[in-house]
Amino acid sequence: MRARVVKMIATAVTVAVLILGIPSVFLGGALVWQSEQLNLEAQAQALGNTVERRVQDGEPVTTEMLDSWLRGDSQMSGGYVRVNIPESGVLKRGERQDAPRLSTSIVLPSGTTVRTEVSAWSAIWRVTKIVIALLAGMVASLLVGWWLALRGSRQISAPLIYLAAQAEQVGSGQVQARVKPSGIEEIDLVQEELVRTGERMAGRLAAERQFASNASHQLRTPLTALSMRLEEIELLSDNDDVQEEARVCLEQVERLTGVINDLLNATKESGGTAEAIHVLEVFNQQREEWEEAFAAEGRELIFTDEAAQPVLADQSVLAQVLATLIENSLRYGAGTTRVVSRKGTSSRGVMIDVSDEGEGVAEDMTEMIFEKGVSAHGSTGIGLPLARDLIKGNGGRLELKQNKPPIFTISLPAIPASLDPDTVMPKGALVSVGRRRRRF
Questions:
Q1: Is the pLDDT of residue 168 over 70?
Q2: How far is CA 395 from the centre of its chain?
Q3: HSE-up of 13 (CA within 13 Å, CB side)?
Q4: Is residue 427 part of a domain?
Q5: Which of the two residues, 203 and 440, has the higher pLDDT score?
């Protein structure tokens, strides 16, 4: 792809340079030559006007006057002049010029003829300089075009490589793969569609895992009760046939329970650990865990779910990350600690801000706070790096949004409200059967 783009751009630049450059070389040389010729004609005309005025006034045309023209700074300097005056004869000054030369001849009203010749080497040198300059410009244009072709090919091929990597991540289960927009509309459209596809996959996987979990729970409870009842019948009955039937039934129940466990484990292994969860459930769990500790310190812990939108995450991982941030706020912060979930800049994200009213993080520690072993308070320096790695493994991000007062932000991928984890089985269509309607 990249080689093809380079070849295409380089070919276009080369054709454009050749089409415009070659005619420019010939045209530039012709214009310089014509300019030299016109300049010689203008000087010959000026000399002729002087000669004509002297002839009309009866003054003699002397060789000294012609020598002054040939010694001047004009183009005629070092050239040849021949003046033919009908009444006075022919005056010649200078030497005839060998080829290549520029020459011109004019006839005055009195019949006097003025012929001038100069060497053309100066004109040829000017033409050569113009041609060299134009050729150098063509070569420079080709080099610049080649450089732009290489750079343009990288700008086009790099987003495609990233797009392929994003597609591979989506295919391998990293449904929240993200890359920066390339600025190329068509590639960005494909990228956005991959993002939407990943979100739909995430929602469906979350729904499937939730359904499997609910189905397992709903089936395990009656199966457990049934197995207990069969064990009771087997122990209490004195009839051998009844005991045998109870034992066989108990084996079938245990086998069915094993099948359910195997199916649930296979679903978890194929789908990963992330699932669609409500942030409020994690908030409630964290409130029960930390509220008493904050009250003992005379501080307040406030949870607010402003986003009210399901997220795709591992509930235990999210709880552990929040616990790390809340514990740090309790130990090193001050005032009221607030944990607030809000919608991100787009509909595909949910942000959870953990903040307090303490002194925050020093400026020199802002960049190092997520490095392992780095701590501003003498601790092990493992909590925050571990929390960042855990949330990153779930497709999220943990960062220090503001250092004074401190605000730590957890970014999580959201899923559409239509794929709410509480509604894992959509309602079927209404099917008409005679006069009755049944929902399947």
A1: no
A2: 20
A3: 20
A4: no
A5: 203
Distance CA 82, CA 2 (A): 68
Supply 273's token pair: 């650990």
- Distance between CA atoms of 284 and 39, rounded to whole angstroms? 96
Residue 89 belongs to a domain with what CATH number? 3.30.450.250
CATH of the domain at 336: 3.30.565.10
Residues 330, 237 within the same domain:
no
Phi (first) and psi of residue 398, to 5 degrees? -120, 130
Q: What's the predicted TM-score (pTM) here?
A: 0.42
**DSSP run (H or E) holding 340:** strand 337-343
Identity of residue 85:
I
Together in a domain, 94 and 51: yes
Full 3-state SS string of 275-333: EEECHHHHHHHHHHHHHHHHHHCCCCEEEEECCCCCEEECHHHHHHHHHHHHHHHHHHC
Span 100-124, pLDDT tens digits: 888 888 888 888 888 888 888 888 8
Query: Does 148 have pLDDT greater than 70?
Result: yes
- Is the pLDDT confidence value at 196 over 80? no
Domain containing 105 equals: 2-125
Longest dimension (CA), the chain: 164
**172 burial type by CB count under 10 A (0-12 exposed, 13-18 middle, 19+ buried):** exposed
The number of domains in the chain is: 3
Tokens of 164: 């392929």
d(CA 240, CA 244): 6
Q: How do beta strands 311-313 and 337-343 pair?
A: unpaired
Higher-confidence position of 79 and 440: 79
Identify whether the C-beta of residue 6 lies closer than 8 Å to the C-beta of residue 153.
yes
The C-alpha atoms of residue 395 and residue 275 are separated, in whole angstroms, by: 12
Beta strands 397-402 and 430-433, pairing class: unpaired
Distances (CA, A) of 224 to 60, 66, 170, 229, 257: 140, 130, 39, 9, 9
Strands 80-85 and 113-119: antiparallel
% of the chain with per-residue pLDDT over 90 = 8
Phi, psi at 174, each rounded to 5°? -80, 75
Per-residue pLDDT reduced to its tens digit, 365-402: 777 788 876 665 556 567 788 888 888 877 788 888 88
